[in-house]
User: Which sequence fits this backbone?
RNA sequence: GCCCCAGUAGCUCAGUUGGAUAGAGCGCGGCUUUCCUAAAGCUGAGGUCACAGGUUCGAAUCCUGUCUGGGGUACCA
């Protein structure tokens, strides 16, 4: 149900006689919006005020003229002019009831879908397969999945592709680790655990070497910074009133402190390593490990027999592990062309860029220089190796041939926005101008300390233990025996497990989706498994209550066929408000996809659940004053349930019939 | 240095692309269970929308400048 579309059609007829300029008419129609002031209106048209100048009349007069020409008798209960010239529309409850009734008998609860279906390719999740998945992967995965679901539901063709990092430097680390540090028994028993141990171990040696190498540089930096502070202080003392001098002094002090902090943390890291003689023995023996790792990676990319064999051995293990996580999250992809899939295409891509004179040689690397960017996009390194950027170009070209998309969405961390800006500029130059490329960026996942989660800092939370913890906490709250008894619910263990899993996983997904994706997001386990407030549990709980009413209704003889064939009526204010909210489901979905913001949907669902709770309190269903009122409310209840369930499902979150 | 993003209630965040008196959740105070799940509902306190100018019928939203924080910035992904 697209109320806005309908209203705009009616307004278009009225405005046609008043406004000659078609552009002005179009912009006026866009000023018809859902009202922010529910006491005043359901929808409002803020048309008259900006027309005052072009039409040379006072806004109130214009508003009245528009209202006089409007034909809205069937839809609206009242159309009034207020304030500076707002046209306020109040929908007619009878009309709303009729619309809801037809939504109730519709499989898609009245969501008609888009008039202009498009083909979307959505690139999301995209973890590095050899590293254990961690909390940082959840945003891309969950947001991308939600966007894919919603676009599909709205009638678009959606192709999802998990662009796995299965070809990068991390494989050099694992191969090197496997050759020198492996524990055959552990590998035989749990290959992925052993591989990730090797990955972390090699990385820790690299980190140690980096720290050692950084010390002299930092010491030099500190000397310089101290000089800068002295200089700035003298300047500031000479001119205490000079704001710039004070600022410079402050900046110099900060610089010095940063360098000192960094040196201290490096030294702490080194000391920690030195306290471990076994580690030091390996570190000494494998000095220069970074170069050795790069050599292993390069050998793999050259097709070295041994390394290829290992790669083919490792990858399936890694994929099994990742797929287990996806299965638990309920997420599937149409395709999983990893980076390795494009490897053989890369040299041709670079040659083509070169042939078209788009790419040039610079400092031994092959680069595409772009207007508006300081640094070029490097597509081949000095040493001849290809990069992320090269693969991305090859991937875009492949998708273009394979799927002919109207739009490609990349659901990736905002820190890569410059990379994507460059990529899209290159793609445009290559000639992919008819496809819309969009970086659906999202804020960094931060720890409670406000710093980004890092794969290199051994403290990273693995994704699986995280899910386990959420489920465990959900169990403790939802399956508390006292609570269940109070609610009159008798559950066996299997059902409890299912409920805890649904609520726990839902909590993690919802916490992520309910934030505006563009802002940074503090991952706080304590908060997200709070099962009250704006959380998935609150909505799931509301759904369970709708189902509970429907179950009890059937027991007292109000079966589905009876309330389905009864007439739906909106009488009480809360019923009308709830009815309007239900009619706006499609509006919320459409709006959410305007800028691909899933939090628009979480807000809608939360608001719907809240309204249902009010309705639940104020309007008895099973004990309504009359049977016709009861049956009508039962229809409304069922529609609430279906809307909540559908909405959550689009977000990748499940429901249970009782909890 | 340059570029990008953010700054809204004690805390965590929304704010429908410029609309009317800026909203939720948590926390804090009060009220409501003979009634369909009280994980609920109702209600109160709490704000210089970082700061200063500007644009216009109208600004948290757009422009300019300043402050604060985060990110990026030639061979990582």
Assistant:
């Amino acid at each position: 149900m697209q109320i806005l579309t309908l209203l705009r059609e009616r307004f278009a007829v009225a405005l046609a006689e008043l406004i000659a300029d078609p552009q002005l008419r179009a912009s006026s129609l866009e000023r018809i919006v859902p009202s922010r002031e529910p006491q005043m209106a359901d929808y409002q048209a803020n048309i008259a005020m900006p027309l005052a100048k072009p039409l040379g009349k006072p806004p109130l007069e214009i508003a009245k003229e528009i209202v006089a020409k409007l034909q809205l008798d069937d839809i609206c209960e009242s159309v009034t002019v207020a304030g500076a010239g707002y046209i306020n529309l109040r929908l007619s409850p009878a009309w709303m009831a009729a619309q809801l009734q037809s939504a109730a008998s519709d499989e898609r609860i009245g969501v008609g879908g888009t008039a202009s279906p498009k083909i979307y390719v959505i690139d999301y999740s995209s973890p590095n397969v050899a590293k254990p998945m961690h909390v940082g992967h959840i945003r891309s995965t969950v947001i991308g999945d939600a966007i894919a679901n919603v676009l599909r539901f709205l009638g678009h063709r959606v192709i999802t592709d998990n662009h796995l990092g299965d070809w990068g430097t991390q494989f050099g680390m694992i191969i090197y680790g496997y050759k020198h540090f492996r524990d055959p028994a552990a590998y035989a028993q749990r290959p992925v655990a052993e591989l990730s141990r090797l990955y972390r171990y090699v990385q820790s040696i690299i980190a140690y070497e980096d720290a050692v190498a950084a010390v002299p540089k930092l010491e030099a930096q500190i000397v310089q910074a101290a000089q800068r502070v002295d200089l700035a202080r003298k300047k500031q003392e000479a001119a205490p009133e000079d704001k710039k001098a004070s600022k410079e002094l402050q900046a110099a002090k900060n610089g010095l402190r940063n360098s000192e902090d960094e040196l201290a943390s490096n030294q702490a890291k080194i000391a920690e390593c030195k306290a471990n003689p076994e580690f030091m023995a390996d570190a000494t023996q494998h000095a220069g490990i970074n170069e050795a790792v790069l050599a292993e990676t390069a050998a793999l990319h050259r097709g070295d027999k041994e390394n290829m064999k290992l790669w083919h051995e490792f990858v399936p293990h890694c994929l099994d592990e990742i797929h287990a996580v996806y299965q638990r999250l309920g997420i599937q992809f149409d395709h999983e062309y990893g980076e390795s899939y494009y490897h053989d295409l890369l040299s041709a891509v670079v040659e083509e860029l070169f042939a078209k004179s788009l790419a040039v040689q610079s400092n031994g690397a092959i680069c595409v220089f772009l207007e508006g960017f300081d640094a070029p996009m490097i597509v081949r390194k000095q040493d001849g190796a290809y990069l992320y950027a090269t693969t991305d170009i090859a991937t875009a070209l492949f998708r273009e041939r394979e799927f002919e998309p109207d739009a490609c969405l990349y659901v990736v961390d905002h820190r890569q926005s410059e990379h994507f800006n460059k990529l899209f500029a290159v793609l445009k130059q290559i000639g992919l101008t008819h496809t819309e490329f969009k970086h659906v960026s999202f804020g960094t996942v931060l720890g409670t300390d406000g710093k980004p989660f890092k794969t290199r800092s051994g403290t990273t939370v693995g994704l699986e233990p995280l899910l386990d913890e959420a489920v465990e906490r959900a169990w403790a709250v939802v399956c508390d025996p006292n609570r269940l008894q109070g609610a009159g619910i008798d559950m066996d263990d299997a059902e409890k497990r299912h409920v805890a899993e649904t609520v726990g996983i839902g909590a993690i997904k919802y916490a992520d989706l309910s934030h505006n994706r563009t802002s940074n997001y503090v991952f706080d386990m304590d908060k997200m498994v709070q099962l009250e407030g704006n959380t998935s549990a609150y909505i799931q709980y509301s759904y369970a209550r709708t189902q509970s009413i429907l179950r009890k209704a059937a027991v007292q003889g109000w079966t589905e066929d009876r309330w389905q064939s009864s007439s739906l009526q909106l009488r009480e204010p809360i019923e009308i408000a709830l009815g309007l909210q239900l009619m706006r489901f499609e509006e919320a979905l459409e709006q959410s996809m305007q800028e691909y913001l899933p939090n628009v949907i979480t807000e809608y669902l939360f608001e719907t659940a809240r309204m249902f709770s009010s309705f639940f309190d104020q309007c008895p269903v099973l004990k309504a004053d009359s049977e016709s009122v009861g049956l009508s409310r039962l229809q409304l209840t069922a529609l609430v349930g279906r809307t909540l369930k559908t909405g959550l499902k689009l977000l990748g979150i499940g429901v249970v019939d009782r909890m």
User: Anything to note?
Assistant: Chain A has four domains: 3-91, 119-167+309-446, 170-297, 463-650. Chain A has 26 helices and 13 strands. Residues 454-458 of chain A have pLDDT under 50 and may be disordered.
